[in-house]
Amino acid sequence: MSASAPLPVTLVGPHVRLEPLSMDHLDDLFAAGGRDEEVWRWLGGPAPRTREELRGKLAELLEHAGRGEYVAFAVIHLASGRAVGWTTYMDIDVADERLEIGSTWYGRAYWRTAVNTASKLLLLTHAFEDLGMGRVQLKTDHLNHRSQAAIARLGARREGVLRRHRRRPDGTWRDSVYFSILASEWPAAKERLAARLDGPGHGG
């Protein structure tokens, strides 16, 4: 079975709903993560200090999505009904049955909660089981140890490092650490993720 291209869709789980990202989410997103330097530290630019600066970042992402380069989701925290971050499918290659989950952020209040695990479970399930992908990759800055630990907890395998891969906004150079999950590894990873969501701490 060949893979299918991801399209804007709503994915619902026990803790979060992922829905197509739009300008309608701007106010919630600014309340969740605007002005927080730590939230934006690894995302390739300074934290948006105003609602209009975040609008610019959101507009740029939506422009990429409009060209088919990304499928972008707002992460809706079900208990509050508010958008608390965004995430995307990117680097999509249907012929080679692969894509990347990236450009992800959540408001700091939702770190170490079920939000990341629940979001990734929805995205990975859709990628492998609905779209027929054979590989899902994730990457992060080599200095972002919190992100590397979170990716490893998903069951992704650390593959290696691309040295001097990307220039940071401050002019220094980032090495990118790559992880992946293959379709053959997904059933075991899914079982672990589901158990984490059901266990103490609910996946944080």
Automatic annotation (TrEMBL):
Q: Which residues form the N-acetyltransferase domain?
A: 16-184
UniProt cross-references to InterPro entries, sorted A to Z: Acyl_CoA_acyltransferase, GNAT_dom
The record, for SUPFAM superfamilies, names: Acyl-CoA N-acyltransferases (Nat)
GO MF terms listed in the record are: acyltransferase activity, transferring groups other than amino-acyl groups
Q: Name one Pfam family in it.
A: Acetyltransf_3
Q: Identify the PANTHER family for this entry.
A: BLL6696 PROTEIN, N-ACETYLTRANSFERASE DOMAIN-CONTAINING PROTEIN
Protein name according to UniProt: GNAT family N-acetyltransferase
Per the UniProt entry, what species is this protein from, by scientific name?
Streptomyces thermolilacinus SPC6
